[in-house]
Amino acid sequence: MNQEEDEAMTYRAVVELWAAERESLQYVLPYTARKAAQKALLFSPWMAEAEIDQIEPSQVSAALMYLGSKGGRQKKGLSTATLRAAHLAGSQACVWAVERGFASKNPFARVTRPRANYRQSQFLTQGQATKLARAASRSFSKNLSSGDVTRASFALAVCIAVATGLRRGEIFALSWDDFNDTTMRLSVSKAIKGDGSLGRPKSVASIRNIAIGEKLCKLLAKMRAWQEENFPEKDWSQSAFIMCNGEGERASLNAFEHWWRSWADKGGWKGLRFHELRHTHATLLISNGTDVKTVQMRLGHSSAEVTMSCYAHALPMADGSAATLLDSTLFSR
């Protein structure tokens, strides 16, 4: 930094320096630092060139009110989750400025952070999940047979998600050196970020090696055999991506999102988000008696407490299954 410690700085300059420090010193992943800065700069029309100490809480409130009613590209207002994230990022940047001596106060501190109205996550029942997995498996085989490897990859991604609980970015970052058909395991060590770049997974705990079943293993082997035959120039022992397009390159996440919405709606899963396949995987494991520690490891959570906080709803189902099993054992003739 070239600024003197006591030199006043504009809001924009503070946000940019805050983000640069977080990224360069690796406090967070580069994508995370940039994304937070983008959220903080949503306040730019109201305070970008103002010094931090000149910004009043009323300006922050006015900005939030406008962004909530007329923000966004279509001027229909930003979601409460986005408003909350913007307030958090702006506040964190200003706290950073105070700690560095660039400001004496945080104008966000006296403005209540918006409460996010998140939609409650859905999860599929065992029967629904089975129906979806079989439909995805059929779609995979049909598209691969016709030579449409892009749509085959998309269908395979669905199979992997419901069978393993991997996140979307983790699935599309998988390469063939992550798949071991002898031990029937997948290694997760990278992820596709929101900006399309290839980077590290969400956390250290997200780096993991998980078991997969025989049927999923066969689908993967079928995909590899097709790619080896049709893209012979690729290095199949190392960097080739499992989910690929017609040129053998990594499949597009944007294209996948369009395909998923259409495929899921037509299949009878209207409104189901792809990430909810992860919730389904965890819920089914717990409700069928899998211990929480194993579920934590498969999902890549940092602790069993995190897993429990996300999937406590599955415990009554597991308890019911346990009671039925013991009842049939104790009182059977």
Key terms:
single chain; mainly alpha; two-stranded antiparallel sheet; elongated
Strand proportion = under 5%
Please mark out the parts with pLDDT under 50 across 5 or more consecutive residues, or reply none: 1-6
| Tally of alpha and pi helices | 14
DSSP strand count: 5
Side by side, the strands of the main sheet go: 1-2-5
Task: Tell me the Rg in angstroms.
Answer: 24 Å
Category by helix and strand content: mainly alpha
Q: How much helical structure, as a percent, in the residues? A: 40-55%
Shape: elongated
Main sheet attributes: strand count, strand direction, barrel closure: 3 strands, antiparallel
Written as H for each helix and E for each strand, in order along the chain, the element string is: HHHHHHHHEEEEEHHHHHH
> Distance N terminus to C terminus?
80 Å
Mean pLDDT: 87
Task: Give an overview of the whole structure.
With 333 residues, the chain is mainly alpha-helical. Helices cover 54% and strands 4% of the residues. It has 14 helices and five strands. It has helices spanning 11-24, 30-40, 44-47, 57-70, 80-100, 126-145, 149-164, 168-172, 214-230, 253-267, 276-287, 292-299, 304-311, 315-330, and strands spanning 179-180, 185-188, 191-192, 198-199, 208-211. The strands form two sheets. It has a three-stranded antiparallel β-sheet, with no helix packed on it. A hairpin with a 4-residue loop joins β1 and β2 (185-188). α7 (149-164) runs parallel beside α11 and α12 crosses α13 (304-311). The longest helix has 21 residues, at 80-100. The chain is elongated. The termini are far apart.
